[in-house]
Specification:
alpha/beta; seven-stranded mixed β-sheet; 7 strands; globular
Length: about 240
């Protein structure tokens, strides 16, 4: 049964990919109005077995979502529920197919190991926020196991401390409940084995996305990171 589930979900996912890419190309002049990236992420997530439930009120624009990170499924869940762009490590841009899809979706790539590039990346993120796009940041810098949070990196909050005019920071808790330890993508595990584990999983995978109250503006990156982490930890009932 596991093999058949994997084959069936893979076939549906490939159909979704082909359909959305074809639609994106054929509707080139008006593609931004249609919102193909959001459709793709939502439908692709459903093909993976995701069942997404939203709690709270997401700010639809002029917002930096700050979320915990458990799996590559987070992108599908949050990107399918909102028209958000994502911030990602620059090496993802070089991944076959994934890098192209990320660029189509407006992903902002940053080099977290280069201080020289940091100022330009902060400016790039600030301009995206001022363009009224919702942006998602995973400030842990990596994926966790769903049972705890890694420290949120204050340096990643540089574009919103102090915040640009009219920009809010909204914590978002991504919750897979008991399934988190089963589907988490941690350590040195390759994407392929993790994807097969998700594809072969029986039943639907419930993911609850909790949009928490926006944080008070602050000029202190460390304080802002700590408050965001505390809010998400409380929503997930984590230490």
């Amino acid at each position: 049964m596991k093999r058949y589930r994997t084959i069936g979900r893979t076939a549906v996912a490939l159909f979704v990919l082909f359909f959305c890419l074809t639609g994106y190309v054929l509707t080139w002049p008006v593609r931004k109005r249609i919102g193909w990236p959001r459709f793709f992420l939502q439908w692709f997530g459903e093909a993976m077995g995701l069942e997404v439930r939203v709690e709270g009120r997401p700010l639809g624009r002029d917002v930096l979502y700050v979320a915990n990170h458990v799996s590559w499924l987070d992108i599908l869940a949050l990107g399918g529920a909102t028209p958000t762009w994502f911030i990602s490590k620059d090496d993802v841009g070089g991944w076959p197919l994934v890098g192209m899809l990320a660029r189509i979706g407006g992903t902002i790539f940053i080099d977290r190991n280069s201080r020289r590039a940091a100022h330009g990346q902060v400016d790039q993120l600030g301009q995206a926020l001022l363009g009224h796009y919702p942006i998602t940041l995973f400030p842990e810098g990596t994926t966790g196991d769903g049972r705890s949070l890694f420290p949120f990196r204050p340096a990643l909050f540089a574009s919103v401390a102090p915040p640009p005019p009219g920009i809010s920071v909204q914590p978002v808790a991504i919750d897979y409940d008991a399934a988190a330890s089963e589907i988490c993508w941690t350590g040195d595990e390759d994407l392929g084995p993790n994807a097969r584990k998700v594809l072969g999983r029986p039943g639907r995978l419930r993911c609850t996305i909790r949009f928490l109250p926006p944080l008070e503006p602050s000029d202190d990156r460390k304080a802002l990171a700590a408050r965001a982490q505390s809010a998400i930890a409380a929503a997930l009932r984590l230490p």
